Structure formats: structure tokens, C-alpha cells
From TrEMBL:
<protein>
    <submittedName>
        <fullName>MHC class II antigen</fullName>
    </submittedName>
</protein>
<feature type="domain" description="Ig-like">
    <location>
        <begin position="99"/>
        <end position="197"/>
    </location>
</feature>
<keyword id="KW-0325">Glycoprotein</keyword>
<dbReference type="InterPro" id="IPR003006">
    <property type="entry name" value="Ig/MHC_CS"/>
</dbReference>
<dbReference type="InterPro" id="IPR013783">
    <property type="entry name" value="Ig-like_fold"/>
</dbReference>
<keyword id="KW-0391">Immunity</keyword>
<keyword id="KW-1015">Disulfide bond</keyword>
<keyword id="KW-0732">Signal</keyword>
<feature type="signal peptide">
    <location>
        <begin position="1"/>
        <end position="18"/>
    </location>
</feature>
<dbReference type="InterPro" id="IPR014745">
    <property type="entry name" value="MHC_II_a/b_N"/>
</dbReference>
<comment type="similarity">
    <text>Belongs to the MHC class II family.</text>
</comment>
<dbReference type="GO" id="GO:0002504">
    <property type="term" value="P:antigen processing and presentation of peptide or polysaccharide antigen via MHC class II"/>
</dbReference>
<dbReference type="GO" id="GO:0042613">
    <property type="term" value="C:MHC class II protein complex"/>
</dbReference>
<feature type="transmembrane region" description="Helical">
    <location>
        <begin position="207"/>
        <end position="230"/>
    </location>
</feature>
<keyword id="KW-1064">Adaptive immunity</keyword>
<keyword id="KW-0812">Transmembrane</keyword>
<dbReference type="InterPro" id="IPR001003">
    <property type="entry name" value="MHC_II_a_N"/>
</dbReference>
Length: 236
């Protein structure tokens, strides 16, 4: 049995002038193989610790990035993980016979924006409602593994204590290309693969043709009516 230790700190801050509540959250998680440290606000990641590159990564885009992590943020994250690892050893002894709950991930694949052939876009593979919070997402393009070209977000808690995670794959749509994302999780008996195919509908000429024909017939009718009206007046 693999044991995960998860610690949450949730703080509610109220803006008295605007009467708006903001929820800050800090996630500290560790297991034998994984560790995570994330700070967020209102369900959005603000920054997280990258323990491979040994630095703090800002998660918000530049136009929304108004919060700067302190200079000691990475050292603080490392200290929090050390405490988590120590507590993990204690809990492993205390709860060695307790089964780990498992929730099967719900997965989907979709483009970030409307697809136009030849225009750069991003495919998103979203996995949610899973527990424990360890998951693997891989990508293929036309049967060839392209996982190295993708990026993976930190996993983030849902309100029901399960987790969600995003994987992003940049791509340029080309007619007929087929992409897949495959999710592996210990609650799944077999990997779950989702498929997305580039299939862009080209503009149809039918409506334009029918509109043109209708306009021509209409103008012909007007011209004919005008002719008979003039002839009738001449006869009178």
C-alpha cells in the first residue's frame, strides 16, 4: 500500500469595501515518490515549487500576476516537504492496515480555442475527480509518442477532496491528424485513452449559390413587373 500525506491550509479573506471573499489555499503533499507544494487563490494556482529545477514557478499569466512570492519561498517549500516526509513515516506505522481510498479519474480532451487549419493551438487533456493524487498522462500524434512536447500542471484539489490535473500539447492543426491522450491511474484497471481528430468544416458554397439565384430571380421578377406596368400605362 502506498501512503500519501496531504496538508491543506485554507484562509478566507474578505474585501470589506467591495464585499468580496477570496479564498487562499496552500497544498503540501508527499509520498515515497512524489511531492508537491502549491499556493493558490480562488481556485487558481498562484505559484508552485519545482523540486526538479529547484525554483518557484509563477502559474498566473503576466496580465494577472500581481502576487510575487517571497525570496525564501523555495526554501520554505523544502522545509514543509521535510516535515511532511517525517509525518509520513509516523502515519505509515500508525495506519499500515488502512486501505487507500481510490477514485477513478474522469478524462476529456479538447482544443483551447476554435480550430483553424494552419493556426497554432493547444490541445488540453483534463483529468479530474481522481484519488490518490498520482497520475500519468501521455500523448500521441498519428500513433507516434509526443509526450515530451507536452506540459503538465500541478494537481489541484477539488471540493470533494479528489484532484484534477491538466496536460497541454501545443499543435498546429492539419486535416486528418489524430491525437490521443492516455491517462494511467491506480484506480483504473486499464489506461483510459481519449481521441481527438482534426476535422474542420470548410465553408459551404451552397447557401451563397442559393442566395445568388434567389436574388437574380427576384430582380428578374421586379424587372418583368416594371415592364408590364410601363406597357400598361402606354396602352392607356
Amino acid at each position: 500500500m502506498r501512503l500519501f500525506l496531504l496538508c491543506f491550509t485554507l484562509v478566507c479573506v474578505k474585501d470589506t469595501e467591495a464585499q468580496i471573499k477570496h479564498h487562499d489555499i496552500k497544498v503540501i503533499a508527499c509520498s515515497d515518490t512524489d511531492k508537491e507544494y502549491v499556493l493558490g487563490i480562488d481556485k487558481e494556482e498562484v505559484y508552485y515549487a519545482d523540486f526538479v529545477k529547484q525554483l518557484i514557478v509563477k502559474a498566473l499569466p503576466p496580465f494577472a500576476d500581481t502576487l510575487n512570492p517571497p525570496e525564501t519561498a523555495y526554501q520554505s517549500a523544502g522545509a514543509e516537504i521535510d516535515i511532511c516526509k517525517t509525518n509520513l513515516g509516523v502515519y505509515r506505522t500508525e495506519f499500515k492496515d488502512t486501505p487507500t481510498p481510490q477514485d477513478v479519474p474522469q478524462n476529456s480532451i479538447y482544443p483551447r480555442v476554435d480550430v483553424n487549419l494552419g493556426s497554432k493551438n493547444t490541445l488540453i487533456c483534463h483529468s479530474t475527480r481522481f484519488f490518490p493524487p498520482t497520475i500519468r498522462i501521455t500523448w500521441t500524434k498519428n500513433g507516434v509518442d509526443v509526450t515530451d512536447e507536452s506540459s503538465l500542471s500541478q494537481y489541484y484539489p477539488n471540493e470533494d477532496n479528489t484532484y484534477n490535473q491538466f496536460s497541454h500539447l501545443p499543435f498546429t492543426p492539419k486535416e486528418g491528424d489524430v491525437y490521443t491522450c492516455t491517462v494511467q491511474h491506480e484506480a483504473l484497471q486499464t489506461p483510459d485513452t481519449r481521441t481527438w481528430e482534426v476535422d474542420v468544416d470548410l465553408p459551404s458554397v451552397g447557401p451563397a449559390v442559393f442566395c445568388g439565384v434567389g436574388l437574380a430571380v427576384g430582380l428578374l421578377g421586379v424587372a418583368t413587373g416594371t415592364f408590364f406596368l410601363v406597357k400598361g400605362n402606354q396602352c392607356n
